[in-house]
Structures are given as structure tokens and as C-alpha cells.
């Protein structure tokens, strides 16, 4: 059964307004896992993609113009089609006093953008409680 579960291809939606961050994280995840990684450059685009593609998880930047990460998360939670998708927030600000604010929103985790691209997929698998690489 575990072998069958590890063969399931996961779909991740990455929402970040910085193109270089999207490309780095997408490449990192696709090279070290069998996941399909979709990307969106804004909260609004991310909401549309989440409804359309129903990803298994969403990685969401906290600070974006127009609709920031917490506002986007709130919209995801209000939509019955997207409310059960686990969300991991990414933040460039790693201040300890901000972490509880984001965690209290109901996200799965809050991570610093200072990630190790070689272990990022494994880190996400652990947070999401998915079999390694799957």
C-alpha cells in the first residue's frame, strides 16, 4: 500500500510575485520529487488556479502587492472548493514575533524563504506528512 501511495503524483501550487523565487522553487521541487509544480504570480491568479487545478498543497508568499498571502489564504478558506487544501506560507521576514500571527491563521506551516533547494521537497513532505518524494 505504501508503494502505491508513493507513486501518486502530487500537484503543488506555488504563489509568489517574485519570478526568480518561483523558478528556483519550481526547479528545486521538480528535480527532487515527482511533483507537478504550478506557479502563479499573484494572489488573484493563485485563487483562480487553486479552483481550477485543485492542488494537493499550496506554497504561498506572505508579502505580495495587491493581495498579500494572508488575504489570499483567507479567500482560499472561504471557498468550499479550496478550503481543505493545505497551505504553507513563505516569508522573507523571519521575525519570531510574526510567526504566531501567521500560524494562528490555520496554515500548515510558516517557512523562511531562505530554504535549502536540495532538501526543500523533503521538508515539504515532512510538513504535509506525505511519503518521501511523493
TrEMBL record:
Cross-referenced CDD domains: REC_RR468-like
Presence of keyword Hydrolase: no
Signal sequence range: none
Superkingdom in the source lineage: Bacteria
GO annotation terms (biological process): phosphorelay signal transduction system
Modified residues (4-aspartylphosphate): 61
One Pfam match: Response_reg
Keyword vocabulary terms for this entry: Phosphoprotein
Residue ranges of domain Response regulatory in the record: 11-128
PANTHER family from the UniProt entry: CHEY SUBFAMILY (PTHR44591:SF22), STRESS RESPONSE REGULATOR PROTEIN 1 (PTHR44591)
Protein name from the UniProt record: Response regulator
Amino acid at each position: 500500500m505504501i508503494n502505491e501511495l508513493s507513486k501518486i503524483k502530487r500537484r503543488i501550487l506555488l504563489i509568489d510575485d517574485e519570478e526568480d523565487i518561483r523558478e528556483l522553487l519550481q526547479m528545486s521541487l521538480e528535480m527532487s520529487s515527482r511533483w507537478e509544480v504550478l506557479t502563479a504570480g499573484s494572489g488573484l491568479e493563485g485563487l483562480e488556479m487553486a479552483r481550477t487545478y485543485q492542488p494537493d498543497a499550496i506554497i504561498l508568499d506572505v508579502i505580495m502587492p495587491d493581495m498579500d498571502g494572508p488575504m489570499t489564504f483567507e479567500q482560499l478558506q472561504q471557498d468550499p472548493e479550496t478550503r481543505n487544501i493545505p497551505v504553507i506560507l513563505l516569508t522573507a521576514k523571519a521575525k519570531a514575533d510574526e510567526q504566531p500571527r501567521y500560524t494562528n491563521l490555520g496554515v500548515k506551516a510558516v517557512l523562511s524563504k531562505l530554504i535549502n533547494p536540495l532538501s526543500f521537497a523533503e521538508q515539504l513532505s515532512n510538513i504535509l506528512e506525505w511519503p518521501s518524494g511523493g
